[in-house]
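sry for the spam today, last one i promise. C-alpha cells for design, 246 residues
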C-alpha cells in the first residue's frame, strides 16, 4: 500500500478491468489514488457479461457472485484486481467515464487486501462496478481488451495464477477473413457504430453531478442494446458470420 495522506473524504474503489491500468485510470480518467493495494473479492469471479458491440468489442468485464449453482464456478479463481483509495469526487468521475450508469451499477462488498504476489493482510469495504443488465449469453472479449487486462495485472504484480487465468481466457476472433465476412462487419458497423456515437454524445450531455444519466436514457439505451444483439444473433450473423466469437 502506498500514496499520500488524503485531505478529503475518501472511499476504496476496486478495479478489475481496464481501470487496473495506470494509463487508463490516472492518465485517461484523471483519477489520482491516495493509496493502492493488490486485492481480491473471494465471493465473485470475473465474467465478461457487460454487452459491447459485435465485431469490435463484443463483451466487457463484469463480476458474477459465486453462488454454487453453476458447476463452472469451481473452474474460475476469485476475481483479483487493485483497490484504490480515492476521493468521492474521483469515484463519481469513474462512474461518469464508465458509461454514466448505462452499462454498470455500483456494488459495495468486502475485499481482501494483499501484498504483490497474493499474501493476504487485511479486509475492507470496497466500491466497484458490475453489469447493470448482465448478458444471458456470455460473449468473448476482444484480444485488444483482454491484452489490456493481462498487461495491467502483470504491471501491478497480481498473483501469477491469476495472470495465467487471464492470459488463457478465450478471445473473440473473426469467423474467417472472407470478403463476405468483412462486408458484413462493415455493414453492421455502418449502422451500429453510428448509434454508439450518438449514445456516447447523449451520455456526455445528459449525465448529472452524480455521474449518472436520467432514468429514461437508461431505458432507451437498453432498448438499443437489446435491438442490436437481436439484429446480430437472429439476422446479421446468419448472413455474414458471427461477431462475438461463439
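last one done:
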Amino acid at each position: 500500500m502506498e500514496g499520500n495522506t488524503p485531505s478529503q473524504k475518501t472511499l476504496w474503489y476496486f478495479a478489475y478491468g481496464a481501470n487496473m491500468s495506470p494509463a487508463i485510470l490516472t492518465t485517461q480518467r484523471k483519477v489520482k489514488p491516495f493509496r493502492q493495494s493488490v486485492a481480491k473479492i473471494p465471493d465473485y469471479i470475473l465474467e465478461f457479461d457487460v454487452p459491447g458491440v459485435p465485431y469490435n468489442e463484443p463483451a466487457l468485464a463484469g463480476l458474477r457472485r459465486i453462488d454454487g449453482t453453476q458447476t463452472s464456478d469451481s473452474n474460475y479463481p476469485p476475481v483479483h484486481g487493485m483497490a484504490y483509495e480515492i476521493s468521492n469526487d474521483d469515484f463519481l468521475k469513474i462512474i461518469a467515464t464508465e458509461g454514466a450508469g448505462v452499462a454498470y451499477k455500483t456494488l459495495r462488498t468486502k475485499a481482501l487486501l494483499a501484498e504483490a504476489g497474493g499474501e493476504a493482510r487485511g479486509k475492507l469495504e470496497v466500491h466497484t462496478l458490475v453489469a447493470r443488465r448482465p448478458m444471458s449469453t456470455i460473449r468473448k472479449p476482444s484480444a485488444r481488451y483482454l491484452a489490456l487486462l493481462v498487461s495491467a495485472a502483470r504491471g501491478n504484480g497480481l498473483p501469477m495464477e491469476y495472470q495465467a487465468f487471464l492470459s488463457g481466457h478465450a478471445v473473440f476472433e473473426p469467423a474467417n477473413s472472407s470478403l463476405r465476412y468483412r462486408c458484413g462487419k462493415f455493414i453492421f458497423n455502418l449502422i451500429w457504430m453510428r448509434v454508439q456515437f450518438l449514445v456516447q454524445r447523449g451520455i456526455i450531455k445528459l449525465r448529472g453531478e452524480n455521474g449518472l444519466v436520467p432514468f429514461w436514457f437508461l431505458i432507451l439505451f437498453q432498448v438499443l442494446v437489446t435491438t442490436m444483439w437481436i439484429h446480430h444473433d437472429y439476422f446479421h450473423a446468419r448472413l455474414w458470420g458471427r461477431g462475438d466469437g461463439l
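The beta strands are 10-15, 35-41, 44-53, 57-65, 79-87, 104-114, 120-131. ok im logging off now
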